[in-house]
Amino acid sequence: MPVLLLHGALGSRTQLAPLAAALGQRPPQAMDLSGHGACPLPPEGLSFAHFLDDIDAALDAAGWEQAHLFGYSMGGYAALLYAARRPGRVRSVATLGTKLNWDRAGLERELRMLQPATMRAKVPAFVAQLAAAHGADRWEALVHATAQLITGLHERPLLDAATLATIACPVLLCVGDQDRTAVPEDTLAAARRIPHAGTLVLPRTGHPVGAVHLPLLLGHLEAFWG
Predict the structure, then answer these.
(1) Would you say the pTM of this structure is higher than 0.85?
(2) CB 20 within 8 A of CB 157
(3) N or C: which end of the chain has fewer CB within 10 A?
C-alpha cells in the first residue's frame, strides 16, 4: 500500500525527503500543499478545504485509489481531517507533532513566532530557508496566511471531539516528549477520542522534524503499516 507524505506549516515536500528516502521499499510520494513550495497561495488565503483538494489531486495523479497518509504537524491535521471527510481513500493515518488542541495560550505562543519582522531579526537562517523554499517575494504572505489559518482553528476547530470520533481507519499519533507545540498530553487526549488510535511518544524529542530519530520512528511506522 503506497504512502502519501504531507509536510508541515511553512514547509514543502522537501521537508520530508529524509523520511521518503528511509521508507525504501514502500513507494512514498511527497506533495506541496496549497501556498507552499511550488504551489501558489490562493487569493483567499490558506484553508483546509484547499488542502483536502490537494490530497485528492495527489492521489489521483499517482493513480492511487487508497493510501496510507503520513502528516507532519499541520500536514497531520490535514490527514486526519481527510480521513474523516474521505474515508474511502485512506488506509491509515500516522501523524508526527500535530497540534490538536488550539487553545488560546497555544495559539498566542505560535502567533508570536509568526511575525516576519521578528523572524528576520531572530531567525535569519530560517527566513533564508523560507525564501528559498517558497520565493523571496512570497514567504511573508505565507507566514501571514498561516497565522490566519491557525487562528481559525482556535475559533472553530475542524477536528473537534465529534469529528475525531468519526475517523474509522487505524491512526497512530506520534509526538516528542519535549514537543511544546503538539504537547504529549494533548496528543494522548485526542487519541482517546479516535476509535482505532494509538499514541507513540518519542523520547528526548522536540517539535522540529529534522531532530527526530528516523530509525526509531520508521520502525514503529513499518509495524503500524504492517
Answers:
(1) yes
(2) no
(3) C
